[in-house]
Amino acid sequence: EARRCPDAGCTQGLGEPREDWTNPVLWSDRFGTQAELEAAAAKTVASSRRLSEVTGVAVTIPADEWVIFDMDEPLNLKSLTIFGKLSFDDAKDRTLTTGDIVVWGALEVGNSTAPFGNTTGSTARIVLGGSVYDTASYVYVEEETLHNKVIAVPGTVSAYGAPVASTWLRLASSVTDGATSVCVLAPGGNLTEDWPVGSEIAIASTEFDDPEGQVERRVVTEVDYTSDDDCWRLSFDAGLRFHHYAGNFSVGDWNENGIDQQVEFRAVVARVDRSVIFESEDTEGDRYYGGHFEVFSVPTTTPPRVGRMDLRYVQFHKMGKDGLSGTVKFGYKSNFEPPPVNQLVGCSWTDNLEYGVHVQGANTPTIIKDNVMAQGRNSGIFIESGSNVQIVGNAVMGIARSFNAPVAVNEFTGGSRVPNYAAIRSDVLPMRMVGNVASGSNDIGFLHPAEPCPAMRIFNNEAFANIIGVFILPAKGTKCQTVNLYKSWKAAHMAVFLADILPSITQLSYITTADSHLGIVPYSSVGNSFRRLFVTDSTIIGSSPASSCDRSRFCRTQSTKDPTHIGCNSIFAPSNLRRVGFVAPFNTPNKKTCWTGGDPRQCRQLSPAYPSLDDCHFPFEKHIHMDKGVGWTFFDRTKFAYWKDSDCTHPDDSSVGLFSRAYTMSTSGPEVSFPSTFTNTSWYQAEAMARVELSAEFLDDSFVGRRSPCKSSSGGCMGLDQALIQDTDGTFIEVQTEENGTFTRLPKGSFGSIVPYTPRTDIVWNSQCTRSHFNKKEGADTVPHSINAQICINTTVQLIEMKNLDRGAKDVKFGPLALTPDVEEDNGFTGGVLSSVGPFYASCPCGWDFSFYHILVKPDVIYDAEVLSLPENFMLRYWSKRPEDAIVLRFFYPDSRGVNVFVGSNKKPPMELKLDRMPTKADKHGAHVVDSQRLLLAITVRGSEEGFRAAKDLVVRRSPTVKLKMNVEISIKEFNGPNFQTNLAILLGIPPERMKVVAVATGRRLRELRDDETFLPAETCSRYGCRSVLRRLQTTSEASALDVTIEPSTEAAAAASGGDSTSTGMDALNAQASELNQISTTLGTLGESSALAAAAGGEVSVTELQAPAEQDTSLQEETVSAADAAAPA
User: 983: helix, coil or strand?
Assistant: First the structure.
């Protein structure tokens, strides 16, 4: 029978919680040997006349007893319940095997003053056995099952093994396959004592081909200090099967003392054996089901019992229940005062079947420190909840997907998905996460939310040999998020992925990426908010000395057809890109992950990284949705190193070369590609062609979703054609190169821009830009090299954005926006039209937005501007910080109505901006004129700090009117305009003076003759002569074509603006537009009614009704303060 609570409750036999225990008794005296226990159990069965066989011995330690386990021979129990205290004597090795242990009192194996085996060298083993199908042995507490093969802890468990001064160290130098020793760095340590002969070590993988499988374990046979290399050499019998990297190398940037900056990548070597061991007895077949700890509280007791754990230098081997429970689970459901403190320090996990540690912590402080985990399933450390968790100095190596992980299959596409997992996963922000290493995960290394600014909790962590090194979930409820001090290298897919960015500001600082398919990949889902990404003091490396063409050659990514990352399914794979350092961000309203769009209950099971949609979201960098709005990326003090154009050959075809690029756009986000501004950039061993990829021809095969428009042979797409890099000091454009200690740069004070190289942009910019780059010296001459972009030295290129603010605008395509530089001025352009072709539908059209267009411009130029249909309400944003920058836009404007121009959040249009002349580049921001004779609306747009952060957008609104076209079956002579004006005004309930009626044409009303009527002959002539035809249409009456305009209401303006009937403020225009739309609705219902005919004096047909477009304020972006928009200090 399962260990269910009796009717009286599970708490029968509990005593008062105790800390002071005296008068211990030995197990051998209290319970005896295995044979004595079985004999006693058989006697109990016989006395109760039970006919069932004895299947094991159940032992209970009463609440008032302290028992010391002293058995020399292994002991095998069915179950053990501890109401009192059980501790272990370390004079000899001890082994206790049981189906489960329920600890209401205390379980102690060694303590802080006498760690088990520290002086005797003994080991203690607690072994848990049982099958998942043996439901009769399941443990229940408070009507909840804890399964069997469990140590249930509503009491206290403490275990202190023999201390290990350094639980993990770094490899001193690389080792190759076949090596029978490794040398490790242990400054100040003595490994003959700390890692003696007989110790078991684990060596982390440094390649992503088979990251979990390349973790290697060996038993040390010899320990020697090597003074020449200042390292400790650990020898073993069996040679290694794989290469493990360790080394440091220069990334240039010599200081004034001639010392260059070094980057250090080294494999981790960990000691995994301990003197106290908790393990599972058998994990084969139906017993593939390890033991686990369950630490929890029982609030129904008096006083309530709160489980706690303090384990130090303990080993967990083959523990954890695959798909059910982690090795150590803290499962609290409420807060406590004072809360219990749980500690796991210096422990090791080997071959575990589920999470190493799983925390549902409430407010309980949990310290996870200096632990090592080698070759486990699903995760090493998983923090599901709890605000008081510290994860410090842990090394997790070799994490693979559970054998029993669920697989979701899309019945329509056949695509499949599996839950994502991570070596270290935290669904909440930990109190501290410092100095950890995650390596060898066959999925994600680190998975956690970003910190709110400033960085305080998460830093100095490192990921290597993972599929995705660092997967950053967005911070919620903050305007600024940050990721700080991360090193991520040898990532098969992405080194750092910023998923579903929600805050307006994202800061990355002191990030190092290397040897990864994609380095830093931001995926922004900010919506209409301000969008800025700052990357400071970071190093982005291509194929470093840690790389080779024999190992980790090409990428590994998930797809719906390849859920376990076997092949390279990256969006950049068709272009044979081996490495990409930075992928320019885009912004989309469609969120990718379960974290931002899924059911929290599902996210716990599937992981927050699990995509909310299927085919539209794989691989992770894939977008295939309509982009929404422009943002900007700022780089400061960025180092790029080891970038090669030709970077190995394709693993499937040695005749196909692979390439690397330090910077490119996302080929799945072709509507918007955030521009980037670089300052204080340095380059080291970087070829010119490998720096930037903005060529349509090169990227042709990688475009996704809108692949046809973006191709070099098609009409273009905004994400590529309007991509932009600004170089404020010339350090990005001209790579510093070394020759005899001398560096070559552009002259001091230089600057420039980089624009795309496409058939559309080449025509426009080739007169001011070049593809030639000078960054290599041979002899005394500087040799030019071509790049796949256009370099505009000492030329500023900026961005102008136009957005339709009419209600319903996102579904109305009003572009493209085309700008033609004034041919009469000397502006550097020699031909071509700057054109923004606009958004396209996606293959997964989960969202789209046709309301905006952006386009590259050069300042100090007059442009003739055209769009397909000029909106009644639109926004102009000039992406320039400099007040000296200005352009003039001359829109084609076939409308007699005036316009009102609002600056920033002002509710009233500044009257000084209305000019009676053509505005110039010297005028103020927003100066404008409507020239009805030339059919022009001309506006001056000027740069400013406020404008760059969306605080000085120009909102242009036409005066609202209703326009009506109708035919009245009455001759122009008979038509009485004043009477019609008065009658229609009365019908609509408005003053007649608001109406303007113009009879613009006279026509005849025709009808088709019936079959029985006579066809009338008529003569028709052409240049070939005349001929007679029979007319089938006959004139029945004359008709007048009328244009009717209804002007805005002064009463509505007065009501919205405090009595000012002449107001042209924002509120007044909104009120007038709303009132005119009501009139338009009335006219629409009248149609060809008799009332309208009576007002006109004849039969009426309405041919066109144009209502004013109301402004949709939701389409405008929020503005932020200067402090919020500032770069990080």
Answer: helix
Residue scoring higher pLDDT (337 or 1125)? 337
Tokens 């009491």 found at: 155
d(CA 103, CA 153) in angstroms, rounded, equals 5
Contact assessment for residue 304 and residue 298, using Cβ atoms and an 8 Å cutoff: yes
Amino acid at 155: G
Whether the CB-CB separation of 1034 and 1070 falls below 8 Å is answered with no
Determine how many CB atoms are found less than 10 A away from the CB of residue 745.
16
Question: Are the C-beta atoms of 323 and 407 separated by less than 8 Å?
Answer: no
Cβ atoms within 10 A of the Cβ of 210, count?
A: 15
Residue 53 has pLDDT above 60, yes or no: no
Contact between 716 and 707 (Cβ < 8 Å): no
Give the pLDDT confidence score for residue 304 in this predicted structure: 85
Residue range 42-46: mean pLDDT, rounded: 66
* CA 187 to each of CA 118, 190, 198, 245: distance values in angstroms, whole numbers, following the listed order: 23, 9, 22, 19
Q: Quote the pLDDT of residue 352.
A: 94
pTM score, whole prediction: 0.90
Tokens of 514: 């290397």
| Dist CA 763 CA 691 (whole Å) | 23
Contacting residues for 72 by C-beta, under 8 A, at least 6 apart: 92
For residue 1027, how many other CB atoms are within 10 A of its CB?
10
Q: Mean pLDDT, to the nearest integer, of 551-557?
A: 93
Residues 320 and 350: their CA atoms lie apart, in Å, by: 11
| 98-155 residue pLDDT tens | 999 999 999 999 999 999 999 999 999 999 998 888 888 889 887 678 888 999 999 9
Q: Is 911 helix (H, G, I), strand (E, B) or coil?
A: helix
pLDDT in tens, 925-964: 999 999 988 999 999 999 999 999 889 999 999 999 988 8
pLDDT in tens, 437-451: 999 999 999 999 999
Contact assessment for residue 524 and residue 671, using Cβ atoms and an 8 Å cutoff: no
Given the structure tokens 């005394």, which residue do they identify?
Answer: 780
Q: How far apart are CA 558 and CA 438, in angstroms?
A: 20
Q: Where do we find the tokens 């089901």?
A: 289
Find out whether 626 and 842 touch, Cβ atoms under 8 Å: yes
Average pLDDT over residues 178-185: 97
Closest listed residue to residue 441, CA positions, set 380, 494, 400: 400
Its sign, for the CA torsion 273, 279, 284, 285, is negative
Read off the pLDDT of residues 200-245 as tens digits, 9 standing for 90 and up: 999 999 999 999 999 999 999 999 999 999 999 999 999 999 999 9
Rg (CA), the chain: 38
User: Could you give the CA distance from residue 194 to residue 388 in angstroms, rounded to a whole number?
Assistant: 31
Instruction: Decide: helix, strand or coil at residue 849.
Output: coil
At 797 the pLDDT is 97
What residue ranges in 794-934 does DSSP mark as E strands?
798-804, 817-821, 834-836, 852-857, 861-866, 873-879, 886-892, 899-903, 928-931
Of 862, 863, 879, the closest CA to residue 796 belongs to: 879
Q: Tell me 245's DSSP state.
A: -
- Contact call for residues 993 and 1050 (beta carbons, < 8 A): no
Give the number of other Cβ atoms within 10 Å of residue 1014's Cβ. 7
Distance CA 919, CA 926 (A): 9
Q: Give the pairing type, strands 150-153 and 156-160.
A: unpaired
Tell me if 397 sits within 8 A of 270, measured CB to CB.
Answer: yes
* Integer Cα distance of 373 and 352 in angstroms: 9
